[in-house]
Amino acid sequence: MIRAWSAVFCLLFAVPLWAEPEQSAKQPEPLEQLRLRAEHVIDGVPEGNLSGLAWCGNGLWTVSDRVDDRLYRLVPGEPAWQVEEERFVAPPPPPSGLPWGVRRGNQLIGLLRGGALDFEGLSCDARGNRYLVSETQLGVLLIPPAGMPRWLSLPPGLVRQARASGMLLRYNALYEGIAVDPVSSRLWLAVERERRGLLVLHRQQTGWQCNGGCVLLAESGVAAPPVQSGLTQPQPLDFSDLAFYQERLYTLERMAHQICRRSLKTGQAERCWSFAEEGLSEARRYDTPVGVAEGLWLDGENAWVMLDNGRQPRGDGERRPILWQFAAPADGWSAAP
Fold first, then answer.
1. Does residue 18 register a pLDDT over 80?
2. Which end of the chain is more exposed for a tag (fewer CB within 10 A), N or C?
């Protein structure tokens, strides 16, 4: 029995032997602190753990990484927003392309906390298709307005190229965000951490393909948390969601408590905005060394940020999921630094 538990421990916590030492990455300084316009408590999701956010049709939708069979439409209200559930049945996922050790780690996590598919992101196109990214399966589930859900046929070189770039090597540090353009011709995936990165796919007649390579960005490193957090230990750089708005790609970076606009050609950050000042106030702070921001949507007037607090209380004792509504920058999301 001791030998068996030792094997499980090594499986879950082993670090790749070749992993490069973490370096402090050079990050663009946030040019502006976003102003919080409102925060909305979400009722009606007993499991919590909301992860991912997108405007689909006529409202904001989200998904839980603990629930494999439903989406949630957010319904504004007072004193709290409510949810309308939409249920679906996902078919068995295709092979992930991951080695046995990482697959087994994902399975154990699913058994312990629930949510075998671990949906971590949501995006929608102009035709009403919803795209859900599964972290454990490295798959994208398409839910059409009518018809049955199906998994996208992703190119076999996608995972191979990502792993060759040092990504997708650790369980629970895989796909964390998804974005698709309105005409569903391009699709981006965010790899969470150690190394974090951005992958891009293009839809062609034969399906989704990598044009000149799948890896748009791969980077490692650590950075100091915002001073407002009160933390001093550097944390790995991460991505927790993606948003596509007016031909620009935006990343949600929960450890740094910031939103960054990134180049569609290189994935490099062009400009960043911080939400640490208001998001890390004493009343809103959670007892965690990283962040809980896991869903992002942008429009001309707002940045919407969904928090996955894992049912943990924040400073004022609130345990329910929270949706933050920040005012867009005065000069807009697309302005030069």
1. no
2. N
What pLDDT, on the 0 to 100 scale, is given for residue 249?
Answer: 98
pLDDT tens figures, 103-114: 887 777 776 777
Of 171, 190, 89, nearest to 133 by C-alpha is 190
Is 256 exposed, middle or buried (CB count within 10 Å of its CB: 0-12, 13-18, 19+)? buried
pLDDT of res. 245: 97
Q: Decide if 18 is inside a domain.
A: no
Note whether residue 4 is domain-resident.
Answer: no
Looking at the structure of the chain, the number of domains it has is 1
Beta strand 196-204 pairing with 215-219: antiparallel
Assigned domain for 137 exists:
yes
Q: 303 versus 99: which is more confidently predicted?
A: 303
> pLDDT by residue (tens digit) across 228-249?
998 888 999 999 999 999 999 9
- Residue at 16 is within a domain: no
Comparing CA positions, the residue from 302, 278, 303, 280 lying closest to residue 291 is 280
pTM of the model as a whole = 0.91
Per the structure, the complete domain to which residue 64 belongs is given by: 31-327
Task: Read off the CATH number of the domain in which 134 is found.
Answer: 2.120.10
